[in-house]
Amino acid sequence: MTGFLLWLRSLAFNVGWYIGTAVIAVAGMPMLLLPRRAVVAWAQLWIRFCLWWLRLTIGLDHRLCGLENLPAGPVIVASKHQSSWETLAYTLLFPHAATVMKRELVYIPIVGWAMARAGNIAVERGDGARALRGLVRHAKAVIAEGRSILIFPEGTRVAVGAERPYQVGAAALYRQLGVPVVPVALNSGLFWGRRRFVKRPGRITVEVLPAIPPGLDRETFMSTLRERIEGATGRLVIEAAKSERTRNKAVDIDLADA
Fold it and tell me: Is residue 229 within 8 Å of 222, Cβ to Cβ?
């Protein structure tokens, strides 16, 4: 597929995404007055539209594997973060989890208000110990409700192949909440890159990895978490890249035989 065609498809996706988001947001504003479950259902409707439009315009789908590694009951889901894709899709893939997000997102009209009403956890960046205490306090309330926590340990999107330190938030939650941490790896950045307009067709893989039980010391926990996420993410990236090369070769052969 030529670069120009990819650009056109990406333009079509963005235009439809913004228009669809505006329509669903405005039409659903009264949902903000309803209980959390209704707000989550409204958000899931929007996300289903976004993912459907992504498949239609770009040809980008996803698969979730390793669900057998997700324990029953509340957990901390700690995921790799490469793309805006997972900020959308995880509301469907982990529907009852409260996402730890930056506070400025709450101020986005309608969409940000819905994020807050859905029971997510907004954290002020750069607020140090105060932000950490607020994170733990809100997370304890979520766990008490029987819900899970979703956190991106790196704190922001990180491009494929780049490295960023894991933040202290995941370790603080692990120490204070006393529930398993479930690492999650993915390769979304290959298809929907960080700060990239052009999106590529294919299949994003999200893999749920074996849970880390409570009780480890901080250093052991952080090294275990990083090793599992980064190791599995590297494997998924390599597998996807090999699959893409194989697919492109098959296309070339078909064109040669035509």
Answer: no
